[in-house]
Structure to design on (1313 residues):
């Protein structure tokens, strides 16, 4: 039976790697079962880091799992006639397999600090003015929707010319956007899968996120922190448009919000 | 309980007065009885937790359809379709039950209690009454959680992490009324039970070892229980404090976690000045060490089983002990990795990234040492060995997937997705639970004086192994797509629409996994009464627990005073002809009890 | 190591597992969803004032009471006319044929699933039922946890619409319901369904109207059944009596038609949103705002009497919406427009107000009544929409079902002045005091 069990354990690295290969390589049974389309300028950093760790851990996974299989196969008591090696350890090996993983892990940790700082610590500067870039809009999470409040023409959030929308986030393409995020009631999390952006919004706290989209299209906004029974309902739409389309949309939204007449035949 | 236990040492055959029955089987102070009480109780809660998981899987595979058994009873007007708040209850209670009523009590309460005195050669724990209390403190917790199941939405719904303000504001969420308060009280009581236990274990291990049992002759199980008890003793008070603070916020209107001016569900909050993030820090300061509480004892038991069935000493005993200590120590300074995107100061993202990466090191060292243990051994593929080997295989997967989360920028994407769910189910179920099963098969003969059926055990292993990998491995893929946790209906998102077939497959595997446990359940209960009887040491192992009768003497455990001459891993020793060399066996004539008998030699 | 082998044990095991699986499967399926009878309304109408305690109305039972047989009869009639939650029907010959589409209803109705053509069914059950209830009664499982409660469609009254509430045809148009689905209702748990496909929204609109009509018909049938004397002809439709049955069905048909006509409007294609003439160019000027402010506090508008001296909605307590009035045992149709309830509701203690509910309704699962507060106008949160025409509509048409009256006495200029004032309130300095910190912590 030892052979059978060894082969069962061999199936772990084989199938394990196969699943990821099928997922990563486009087409096939796991088509569209991998990282969603990345439409942001800086999302590639996260994706590359993910893949780097995947390859690294993949190698370790295959190596250790294979060793496990090999030892099970070779040292099966029913088949192995050699006496047991009465050994309590190996000082040398302990040093080797402590230092190498430690160095690798430290390397990964330090290597990623830049990416983290870019994502969450380096607030963008407006190249024109040299000051901090003002936010394009305020996104407020509440149970169970995302409310958008665009700063409008005066570029200040909280004035009468603000445009109020729900679940509908339009941004222009190829422009660095800053969004102010907050919550009205409980914890939510503003998650844009296609931008690789996620930030919990905390009551009493005002935060900012920033990104630059490089493709147009319609994408999801997801809430990623349990906020009650309607957590699954907090779906918003992120619509990335060309500069012209964005301006046109903005004008129509302003017009709709300022509507002062209603024609029954419309 | 079976009659064998009664005949064996108590000397009370046949009838027993009620008072004696209660003091023997109900409010027993005997560590073995308490251990078995924990074992049976936790196994029953395991079924409850499993059923809750089946509910979650049903909703994810067949969203908004008639949920079997429970749908018709609770949601008849809707034709059995569950409500969204019921889903929040399902995942909250699944996690709560599994963590606080199954894994932690089975490791520390069942195995810790049963094994510690036996393995160190003591006749009982240092504080038997405290030990009994640590079990009975669980029952008020069971009742609190049980009460929360009674009123709609049939449980607490704030997640097992209970983040405020969702869990602190009465009107914020369904289940956030009485059920959440009961939940908090229940969890606080569980914490107290654990703390009582940990004090007991520490004292017992330090003070009550048999003559000759030095610290470095202790089996890995005991080392792991020891370190785990330190973790519990230092981390739990923080959770208890946080839990009390949250109860006060809910009931007395304090504002520990509630900021000013909050209006939730159109109800004004009166208090303020608090910080929601404070709860997260307090909670994770305990709950991160808690995950090590949930794996270290399993690692220790796996080491013992591996060594026994490879017929070889543990490779690197002292490095293994240092690794466990390293995991525990580092475990206190990594809690922020649960909070990378929580809104805490991003600087902390850097510091916690480094410490979290480092904690992978001792875990890796342990994996290498386990591989070294079976290398050049003579592996016997018994049921406990199969579970122990699968622990290594599955822990490799679970541990490696943790590295993705430690990388803070990557965590931005995978936080609160199924990548995390895959990771912790791999370490907790595919890792710890498998080790627990193995440990049950291994020490069952000692507990009950009978053995479990090997064939059924192997079927149990095989089916569980296949189905659990089918269930949890694909969750890594779901997580890579960004599939979020805790969503009752993720399929109306464009990004996740195509994931329904994969979720269905996972659900079928989960059902298979759940049903496969029938092999274990039936084997377990059947063997207690009708299993073939065995002697003291059916596995030909070295530890002190195999020196006493099976089951051990009711009062005092051992029929002869154990004296310890060496460590527990002297398998294949050249000093004797047998391939095992018990700790209590005196050395042959002319051989001194010297360095060779110390396990953990550096050669 | 000896292998412990025992065949009988294995047999026992396999058999047990088989039994387990069967048990699981047997208890698996539940009955289909069903419409719940409007018990609350039955309680509300079958009681009469207690002369001894006039302020606690309708405590005593009337001489006649709806019998179980009559309730069953009503249920049978309703099922025949409107079908079940899984299989809806459109009653024929009542003018609904063009207004509601059977294919839309079938897509909205039923359990959540995909039919043979992979078209999703059960939209209402998936998106709406857990709050609004399978019956449209606003008492789904989640409803108890919401503030405000979800709408009970069965009264046929809707708050936010652009049809003329002062006219004959007050029901919302399909456009109005679409707006609610697209925008949600800010400040409540009603979410925006904008991200759903347009077709899905249309199916749900039809289904909501279907539920509303069914609910209104149920109320009419209950009233009619109570009129019948108990011994002669207790049943509204005697299905066993061939001659009488035809006449009865005609009677029921007329009842349904009178409900339907309100929905389909004079053109049979649904009510039409009113026309609002364009605002004058300076409607938003400071002068106009001043006019509005003056009116807010006096004379023809008198808004402050409910909305409070500071417009934060603290002008009146003990106001109730129509849906709640029924739960308190009070008759919404006899309400005074200004206070929305019985003239002396404000004088009645909360305890006695809840008396009827506690006595007769809490046992059947009705939701606990809550008072309705006038809107806090300084928050900038307008449930019916924040466009100027939305505010205009609220002022002139009121909000049906609530104490907010429609004011037709103001001139155009005055109305727009009020609109301008209301829209300016959230931006006044006193609405956002500088001393109160908006945030405790700023990150980045």
């Amino acid at each position: 039976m030892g052979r059978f069990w060894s082969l069962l354990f061999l199936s772990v690295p084989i199938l394990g790697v196969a699943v990821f290969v099928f997922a990563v390589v486009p087409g096939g049974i796991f088509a569209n079962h991998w990282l969603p389309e990345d439409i942001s300028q800086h999302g590639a950093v996260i994706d590359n880091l993910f893949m780097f760790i995947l390859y690294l851990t993949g190698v370790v996974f295959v190596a250790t799992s294979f060793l496990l299989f090999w030892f099970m196969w070779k040292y099966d008591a029913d088949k192995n006639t050699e006496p047991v090696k009465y050994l309590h350890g190996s000082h040398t090996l302990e040093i080797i397999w402590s230092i190498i993983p430690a160095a690798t892990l430290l390397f990964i940790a330090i290597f990623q600090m830049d990416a983290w700082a870019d994502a969450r610590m380096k607030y963008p500067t407006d190249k024109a003015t040299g000051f901090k870039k003002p936010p394009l809009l305020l996104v407020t999470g509440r149970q169970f929707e995302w409310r958008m409040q665009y700063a409008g023409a005066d570029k200040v959030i909280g004035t009468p010319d603000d445009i109020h929308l729900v679940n509908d986030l339009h941004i222009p393409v190829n422009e660095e956007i800053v969004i102010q995020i907050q919550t009205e009631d409980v914890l939510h999390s503003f998650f844009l899968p296609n931008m690789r952006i996620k930030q919990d919004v905390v009551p009493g706290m005002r935060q900012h996120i920033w990104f630059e989209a490089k493709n147009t299209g319609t994408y999801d906004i997801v809430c990623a922190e349990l906020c009650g029974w309607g957590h699954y309902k907090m779906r918003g739409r992120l619509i990335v448009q060309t500069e012209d389309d964005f301006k046109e949309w903005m004008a129509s939204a302003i017009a709709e919000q300022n509507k002062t007449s209603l024609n029954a035949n419309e | 309980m079976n009659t064998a236990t009664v005949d064996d040492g108590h000397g009370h055959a046949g009838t027993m007065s009620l008072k004696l029955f209660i003091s023997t089987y109900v409010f027993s102070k005997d560590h073995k009885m308490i251990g078995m009480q924990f074992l049976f109780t936790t196994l029953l809660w395991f079924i409850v937790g499993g059923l809750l998981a089946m509910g979650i899987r049903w909703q994810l595979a067949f969203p908004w359809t008639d949920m079997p058994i429970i749908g018709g009873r609770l949601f008849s007007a809707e034709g059995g379709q569950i409500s969204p708040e019921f889903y929040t209850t399902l995942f909250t209670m699944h996690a709560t039950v599994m963590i606080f009523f199954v894994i932690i009590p089975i490791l520390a309460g069942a195995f810790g209690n049963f094994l510690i005195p036996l393995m160190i050669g003591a006749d009982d724990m240092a504080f038997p009454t405290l030990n009994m209390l640590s079990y009975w403190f669980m029952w008020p917790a069971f009742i609190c959680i049980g009460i929360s199941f009674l009123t709609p939405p049939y449980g607490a719904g704030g997640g097992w992490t209970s983040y405020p303000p969702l869990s602190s504001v009465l009107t914020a969420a369904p289940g956030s009324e009485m059920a959440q308060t009961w939940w908090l009280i229940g969890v606080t009581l569980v914490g107290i039970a654990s703390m009582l236990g940990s004090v007991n274990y520490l004292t017992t291990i330090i003070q009550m070892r048999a003559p000759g049992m030095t610290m470095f002759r202790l089996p890995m199980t005991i080392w792991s229980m020891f370190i785990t008890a330190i973790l519990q003793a230092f981390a739990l008070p923080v959770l208890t404090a946080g839990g009390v603070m949250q109860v006060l916020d809910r009931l007395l209107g304090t504002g520990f976690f509630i900021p000013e001016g909050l209006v939730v569900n159109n109800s004004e909050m009166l208090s303020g000045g608090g910080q929601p993030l404070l709860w997260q820090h307090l909670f994770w300061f305990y709950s991160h060490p808690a995950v090590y509480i949930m794996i270290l004892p399993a690692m220790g038991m796996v080491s013992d089983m591996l060594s026994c069935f490879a017929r070889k000493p543990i490779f690197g005993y002292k490095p293994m002990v240092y690794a466990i200590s390293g995991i525990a120590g580092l475990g206190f300074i990594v809690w922020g990795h649960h909070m990378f995107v929580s809104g805490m100061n991003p600087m902390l993202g850097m510091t916690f990234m480094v410490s979290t990466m480092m904690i992978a090191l001792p875990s890796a060292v342990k994996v290498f040492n386990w591989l070294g243990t079976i290398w050049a051994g003579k592996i016997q593929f018994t049921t406990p060995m199969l579970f122990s080997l699968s622990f290594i295989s599955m822990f490799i997967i679970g541990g490696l997937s943790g590295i993705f989360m430690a990388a803070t920028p990557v965590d931005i994407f995978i936080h609160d997705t199924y990548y995390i769910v895959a990771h912790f189910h791999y370490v907790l179920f595919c890792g710890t639970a498998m080790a627990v099963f193995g440990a049950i098969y291994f020490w069952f003969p000692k507990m009950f004086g009978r053995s479990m059926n090997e064939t059924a055990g192997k079927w149990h292993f095989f089916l569980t192994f296949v189905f659990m990998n089918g269930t949890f491995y694909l969750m890594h893929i779901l997580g890579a797509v960004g599939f979020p946790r805790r969503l009752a209906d993720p399929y109306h998102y464009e990004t996740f629409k195509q994931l329904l077939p994969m979720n269905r497959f996972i659900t079928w595997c989960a059902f298979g996994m759940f049903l496969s446990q029938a092999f274990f359940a039936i084997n377990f209960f059947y063997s207690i009464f009708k299993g073939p009887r065995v002697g003291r040491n059916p596995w030909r192992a070295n530890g002190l627990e195999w020196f006493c009768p099976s089951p051990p003497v009711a009062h005092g455990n051992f029929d002869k005073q154990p004296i310890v001459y060496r460590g527990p891993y002297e398998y294949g020793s050249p000093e004797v002809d047998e391939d095992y060399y018990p700790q209590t066996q005196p050395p042959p004539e002319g051989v001194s009890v010297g360095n060779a008998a110390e396990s953990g030699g550096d050669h | 190591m000896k292998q412990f082998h025992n065949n009988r044990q294995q047999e026992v095991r396999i058999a047990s597992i088989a039994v387990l699986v069967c048990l699981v499967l047997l208890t698996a399926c539940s009955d289909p969803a069903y419409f719940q009878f409007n018990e609350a309304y039955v309680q509300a109408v079958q009681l009469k004032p207690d002369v001894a305690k006039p302020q606690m109305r309708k405590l005593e039972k009337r001489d006649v009471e709806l019998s179980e047989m009559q309730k069953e009869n009503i249920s049978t009639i309703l099922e025949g006319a409107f079908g079940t939650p899984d299989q809806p029907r459109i009653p024929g010959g009542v003018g609904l044929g063009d207004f509601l589409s059977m294919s839309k209803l079938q897509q909205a109705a039923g359990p959540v699933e995909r039919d043979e053509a992979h078209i999703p069914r059960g939209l209402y059950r998936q998106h709406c039922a857990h709050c609004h209830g399978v019956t449209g009664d606003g008492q789904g499982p989640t409803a108890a946890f919401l503030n405000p409660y979800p709408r009970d469609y069965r009264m046929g009254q809707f708050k936010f619409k652009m049809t003329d509430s002062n006219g004959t045809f007050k029901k919302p148009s399909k456009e109005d319901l679409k707006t609610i689905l697209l925008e949600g209702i800010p400040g409540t748990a009603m979410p925006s369904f904008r991200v759903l496909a347009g077709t899905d929204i249309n199916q749900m609109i039809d289904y909501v109207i279907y539920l509303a009509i069914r609910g209104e018909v149920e109320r009419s049938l209950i009233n009619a059944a109570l009129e019948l004397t108990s011994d002669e002809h207790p049943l509204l439709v005697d299905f066993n009596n061939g001659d009488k049955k035809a006449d009865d069905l005609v009677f029921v048909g007329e009842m349904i038609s009178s409900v339907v006509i309100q929905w389909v409007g004079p053109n049979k294609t649904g009510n039409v949103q009113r026309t609002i003439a364009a605002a004058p160019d300076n409607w938003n000027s400071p002068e106009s705002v001043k006019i509005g402010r003056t009116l807010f506090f006096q004379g023809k508008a008198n808004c402050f009497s409910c909305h409070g001296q500071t417009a934060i909605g603290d002008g009146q307590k003990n106001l109730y919406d129509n849906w709640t009035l029924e739960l308190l045992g009070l008759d919404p149709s006899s309400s005074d427009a200004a206070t929305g309830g019985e003239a002396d509701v404000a004088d009645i203690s909360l305890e006695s107000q809840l008396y009827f509910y506690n006595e007769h309704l809490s046992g059947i699962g009705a939701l606990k009544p809550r008072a309705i507060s006038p809107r806090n106008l300084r928050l900038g949160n307008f449930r019916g929409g924040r466009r100027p025409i939305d505010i205009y509509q609220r002022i002139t048409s009121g909000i049906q079902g609530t104490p907010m009256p429609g004011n037709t006495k103001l001139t155009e200029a005055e109305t727009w002045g009020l609109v301008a004032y209301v829209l300016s309130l959230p931006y006044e300095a006193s609405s956002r005091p500088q001393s109160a910190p908006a945030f405790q912590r700023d990150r980045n």
Chain A touches chain B through 102 residues (CB under 8 Å). The longest strand of chain A covers residues 176-183.
